Amino acid sequence: MLFDKDGKVFGECSSAREASHPFSRAIYVSSSALRDSRQKLHQEVLRKDRFLAILSHELRNPLAPIRMAVTVLNKIGPPEPQLQQLRDIIDRQTSQLTRLLDDLMDVSRISSGKITLRKTRFDIAVAVSNAVESIQPQIDSMQHELIIDIPPDPIYVDGDVTRLAQVFVNLLSNAARYTDKRGRIRLVVGREQAHAVVRVIDPGIGISPDQMSRIFEMFAQVDESLERQGGLGVGLALARTLVELHGGTVEAKSAGLGKGSEFIVRIPTVPAESMPMQPAEATIVAAQKPRRVVIADDNVDSATVLGTLLRASGHEVQTIHDGMAALESCQSFPPDLVILDIGMPKLNGYDVAREIRSRGDSHITLIAVTGWGQQEDKRQAREAGFDYHLTKPIDFVRLEKILVEIR
Ligand code: ADP
Fold first, then answer.
1. Which residues of 263-286 are buried (b: 16+ CB within 10 A; e: fewer)?
2. Residue 365 is inside which H or E element, if any?
């Protein structure tokens, strides 16, 4: 292979003699050297992916108790409007941080091909509404107006409702960030032949034709001015991957800088009867019954905040910070539910669960809490005897549902 002095490939050479021709400015690189450098590059990429996965995982740990603390404050904090305003700020900002970390986590999942879709048939309007609900605080904080146009008849698609909502969140978040305050953002849902079509239209900074080709690339950031920061340059790359996993397309349009942008997502529709409907969200019919709960987490802040939250809901709680203490607690304070962090000193969460099950305490409900939510972690948790697996930061609504469901 022949390289020019800038390292660009410009041809192949058939022999070492040709490569060393005095008039040639080319450098001959042997195929084994090329293989070595490719292998090195591959290792570097794997290391970077691993780093991103660990980084996003580790950053979730401090974020979990902060989010939980805000939930507690919302529940039991003094109602003064000024304090409420500050709580809302922490809430909004930690939600944004969580979203960024989720994106980072997904980058490593994409690189290792580990994104899987949990498919059901649903009305695209459901994914759109979920996205709007989660992005509304960001829209409000910029004082934008969001005009939503959803047709009355359902448009069924076959896909992962959470992942599609994530796509719309990313597009709406961009529309909010790349538009000056008090902009009018439009979200239009419709049907075109065999596709559900979702358009996000903003009157913001727009995209120039030469930027257009790059915006869907991973880590591409066209506007690097500080005031527009708040993204990692992965949102559109992620959105495109997720849409393509659904057999769809995403396209950007803009008349140029300062002329606004339009992002169009197309997802193939399915007939209403072709797939099982998404199971309706279990509604809480039973009243909350007070439970005895042991929380074991070596992150003292996490355990304390979760404990406060559960006590505020009327449960009796014991918090401890290592695996051995968790086992002792189960004897001195027989619980209905044990919430176990996995990485703990003395005895890890899996071993604690195994020990509890081997003692025959099958009436105790066990919840594993980890920063990792991969299939493998869930399988390991199930095998150790856990009934549920939750990822950090814990979704408190989900936890409350479990508390209602348990025996
Ligand atoms: P980021 O985190 O930087 O927003 P994205 O992948 O979401 O990353 O977007 C990539 C780039 O595309 C952005 O940095 C921005 O320059 C451009 N972009 C995305 N959405 C819009 C929009 N609605 N208006 C103008 N530019 C946009």
1. bbbbbebbeeeebeeeeeeeeeee
2. strand 365-370
Cα separations (Å) of 18 from 9, 14, 15, 318?
16, 7, 5, 78
- Residue with the smallest CA separation from ligand 1 atom 2 is 231
Measured distance CA(85)–CA(268) in Å, rounded:
42
Pocket-forming residues, ligand 1, beta carbon under 6 Å:
170, 174-175, 178, 202, 204-207, 215, 220-223, 231-237, 261
- Strand arrangement, sheet containing 27-28: 9-11, 2-3, 27-28
Angle between helices 161-177 and 124-141 (to 10 degrees): 30
Average pLDDT of the residues in 57-68: 81
Ligand 1 centroid, distance to 191 Cα (angstroms): 26
Closest CA to 161 of 187, 133, 186: 133
DSSP per residue, 304-350: HHHHHHHHHTT-EEEEESSHHHHHHHHHHS--SEEEEESS-SSS-HH
* Chain-centroid distance, C-alpha 245: 16
Residue 293, beta-bridge partner list: 317, 337
Q: Round to whole Å and give the CA distance between 73 and 362.
A: 35
Which alpha helices (DSSP H) does 266-299 contain, by range? none
Distance CA(59)–CA(232), nearest Å, equals 15
Three-state DSSP at 170 gives helix
CB contact at 8 A, 218 and 208: no
Query: How many CB atoms neighbour CB 313 within 10 A?
Result: 17
pLDDT tier, 28 (very low <50, low <70, confident <90, very high otherwise): low
Tokens linked to 291: 């439970």
Question: Looking at the DSSP assignment, which residues form a beta bridge with residue 121?
Answer: 158, 277
Q: What is the DSSP letter of 277?
A: B
Determine the residue of 103, 199, 221 to mutate for testing ligand 1's pocket, defined as the one with the most ligand atoms within 8 A of the Cβ atom.
221
Return the exposure string of 332-365: e unless at least 16 CB atoms fall within 10 Å of the residue's CB, then b. eeebbbbbbbbebeebbbbbbbbbbeeeebeebb
pLDDT tens per residue across span 195-222: 999 999 999 999 999 999 889 987 766 6
* Cut 0.70: pTM above it: no
| Distance from the alpha carbon of residue 124 to the mean position of ligand 1, in angstroms | 24
Region of 349 on the Ramachandran plot (φ > 0 left; ψ -120 to 50 alpha; else beta): alpha
